[in-house]
């Protein structure tokens, strides 16, 4: 059965686990997902609008064809994959929270109050997968950062010590991030 944009409005999914679920083509409007886990979820063309997705583990499946969209949605302290489209998110100032704990490991950078996934090791495959949007259907860490609304231009600019400094500081031959 093919779903075509079913709308789920006003539900509270806080503290829920959607592990290995397929929520493709659903539209979640005015829903709460606080402290929920969406791990290995297939969410092709899933829409989250006017929703609270704070403190969510959002590790959608890499097999997701069309990335989910976030319209007027907060993602405070949420872990986001590096190929996400953040064009409609609402960012706030980051707090002093530690990065999320992920069983498969990983490193993260701050993008406003969101945690953005980075590779554990900067191998040749990681560089290609995270930085080369031409090999990844137009998706990369830099395209994700660039997808932020223009009102967050300070988060897009390498001059503020974010992506440019972070990426430039991790040469391939070192393999691991510098100690914090």
From TrEMBL:
Catalytic EC class: ligase
Coiled coil segments of this chain: none
Enzyme Commission number(s) of this protein: 6.3.2.-
Family matches, as InterPro entries: 5peptide_repeat (IPR001646)
Region (Disordered): 150-180
SUPFAM superfamilies: Pentapeptide repeat-like
Source taxonomy: Bacteria, Pseudomonadati, Pseudomonadota, Gammaproteobacteria, Enterobacterales
Pfam families: Pentapeptide
Protein name: E3 ubiquitin-protein ligase SopA
Superkingdom, natural source: Bacteria
């Amino acid at each position: 059965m093919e779903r075509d944009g079913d709308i789920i409005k006003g539900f509270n999914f806080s503290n829920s686990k959607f592990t290995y679920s397929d929520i493709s083509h659903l539209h979640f409007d005015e829903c709460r997902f606080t402290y929920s886990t969406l791990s290995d979820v297939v969410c092709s063309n899933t829409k989250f609008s006017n929703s609270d997705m704070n403190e969510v583990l959002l590790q959608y499946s890499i097999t997701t064809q069309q990335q989910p969209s976030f319209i007027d949605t907060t993602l405070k302290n949420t872990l986001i994959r590096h190929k996400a489209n953040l064009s409609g998110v609402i960012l706030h100032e980051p707090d002093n929270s530690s990065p999320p704990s992920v069983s498969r490991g990983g490193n993260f950078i701050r993008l406003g109050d969101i945690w953005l996934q980075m590779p554990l090791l900067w191998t040749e495959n990681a560089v290609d997968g995270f930085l080369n949007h031409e090999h990844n259907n137009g998706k990369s860490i830099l395209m994700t950062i660039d997808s932020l609304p223009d009102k967050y231009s300070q988060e897009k600019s390498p001059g503020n010590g974010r992506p440019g400094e972070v990426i430039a500081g991790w040469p391939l031959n070192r393999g691991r991030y510098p100690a914090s």
